[in-house]
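DM from R.C. (forwarded with permission)

"hey, sorry to bug you on a friday — could you get me a structure for this? deadline for the figure draft is monday and I only need the backbone to look sensible"
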Amino acid sequence: MKKLLTVAALTAVTALALAGCSTRTEAPQAGGEAEAGFAADSLIGVALPDGTSENWVLAESLFNDALTEAGFEADVQNAPASNTVAEQQNQINSMVTNGAKVIIIGAKDGAQLSSQVEAARDAGVTVIAYDRLILNTEAVDYYLAFDNFRVGELQGQALLDGLAAKFPDADSYNVELFSGSPDDNNAGVFFDGAMSVLQPKIDDGTLNVVSGQVEVGQTATQGWLAQNAQSRMDTILSANYGSTELHGVLSPNDTLARAILESVRAAGKPLPVVTGQDSEVESVRSIVAGEQYMTIYKDTRALVAAAVEMVKTLQAGNEPEVNDTESYDNGVLVVPSFLLDPVVVTSENAAQAYADNADLLAATEG
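My reply, with the result:
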């Protein structure tokens, strides 16, 4: 397993803070100092999606605090729950009009923001795609995220590990697959990462997807909504698991994992091995209680801190560091990326993984 995020995140943010060998300006100021990229009190826009998980809600407050503390004027907005894409488009347009120097975007739908980010680029704004890649445009300067393909790989491997631990005498396992919302580019990345691990086991008969639903379009959960996952799980159970035992479920995040477990409980069946992501408090408690098998820790504090360090580097007239220039192709270009390491959390390492996060550590203590 990779180093715990407490170390990895510190290393990543420190690297960003030290980065910046090339300047964005041509002429030095008098006295030999390079001219700053933009004023230290400039407007910085942050456009986030609707708060469908604890991490998005937390990110809003963290960005407000960190940008203000750094001396910038912060315009941080979560899109509303309804008419979300159109409202996020309007928010980005307003940030451009109001003179933002950098706009950090956690896209609700990365395929529907090309016009907005192209207008931002035309206005001289640096665009940072945050957590979710913005698609089909050259007007994305950087992508900052945890390594989302790696998240999927870790979930797939954790499902196999959990199955082997819970059913040590079984030669094969009955499983079902869930993926996230089709308007979120990350949903496909998570699924592809997981299937890179699971598909060979499906092919050799170790895993049996009883419903036959193995394509991302069949497994999608619109809006990342718990009720949609629970409804689909209800249907799968009633149609396929009358007398057949369900051993495991690939769930892409914690919200859906809890909905899947609730469906299984309501059907009166034994709980299967269920994966997750986001380290939501309720799921951490569930993991410690032996219900949900695992989650992924992607420390929102570290990701926000890395984004703010990028802004500081740009303000100083330097280029932020990237550590991946090959993986994240948005359909037009491979976006220079800075990726942080995700961490698998089970009941065995939860206290260690959350040692520097008081809220999550408390959840491990019951």
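R.C.: lifesaver. Residues 46 and 76 are 5 Å apart (CA to CA).
me: no worries. The first strand starts at residue 43 and ends at 48.
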